């Protein structure tokens, strides 16, 4: 069912101008990722080479950062429901400034751990607050005739990807000075974000009622449809995480170094920036949210299958990298379908006034799946199985997730 079918006689307006609050939140996402990705790509090397941590410590600290962020999204979402978007976003920005500043001067393991925890928790505050409000505003924009909600969420994704693309370039430039300069620049970006939001973000956003923190988790944990969505989204994130786990191993096998990996990441970012909006527009006109997610998961499974099919030939060099490039393209196309549809679906499943809690729970629940699944994947890659077997098993994960997707209520607006 499409939006046009839900509203006979009224066609969605393509490219309708976004209201000021949505435009602010889009720029917010770009700035968040610009500041974050100016620092993150260089953190592991700094911890190993600059601070002198052992490899297992580096892995532990990087994992701790992910856990302190994704694992606590549900806390940030609940706080946004209780106190509103503005104070939670401002508090998160202040903590990120402090965390980046501290990280630039941290030279001992426990100071590094403290700084990393602070930067992770900062994102656990502001990200679910912003994401839940974008999703809520996207629904309102759709109901007012501004076009499908997935278009708004696709713009949000593009803004974030643009920041993720420019951030490492800024960080690499400043790394010529030192890592401290990188951290202070990242902190400076968040100083600007904090100042802009203190000035522009409304004290109270119309239509967003504040609710008490307690009492929302029980219904959420009993909501089978939402939990099914979390599991399917977690399968997608686990597959997406193979950009950082299985793909580097395959690139090393085919090329003998990690050098081509940067080009494959650039390919993914470029695809999102240039193709996200056309793909989302196409899906909104033809697919329900469930079918969009299903199609995306099938594409992702096909990406793993491409590498699995090519591995027995054992090709190396440029020819050996072609399956990895195919994997990146199919994974990215699948992401373009899955991510906006999942975010667009949450407002339909969330209890009244609990959009922040449900948005945070989607990230926390799926993040837990990724944490457990990544450990299993790492073990799978290390046990000496034929090279194609781990990729085939990974292909089965998003394929099986299609069956987990909840049925969509006809009353819910699709993409």
TrEMBL record:
Give the UniProt subcellular location, in the record's own words.
Answer: Cell membrane
Which cellular components does GO assign to this protein? plasma membrane
InterPro entries, per this entry? MFS, MFS_dom, MFS_trans_sf, MFS_Transporters
Q: How does it sit in the membrane?
A: Multi-pass membrane protein
Query: Where are the membrane-spanning stretches?
Result: 21-40, 46-64, 85-103, 109-131, 152-173, 179-201, 226-249, 261-280, 292-312, 324-345, 357-381, 387-405
**SUPFAM superfamilies, A to Z:** MFS general substrate transporter
UniProt GO MF annotations: transmembrane transporter activity
Segments forming domain Major facilitator superfamily (MFS) profile:
1-413
Q: Could you name the domain of life of the organism this protein comes from?
A: Bacteria
Q: Which UniProt keywords apply?
A: Cell membrane, Membrane, Transmembrane, Transmembrane helix, Transport
Instruction: Tell me, in one coarse class, where this protein mainly resides.
Output: membrane
Q: What is this protein called?
A: MFS transporter
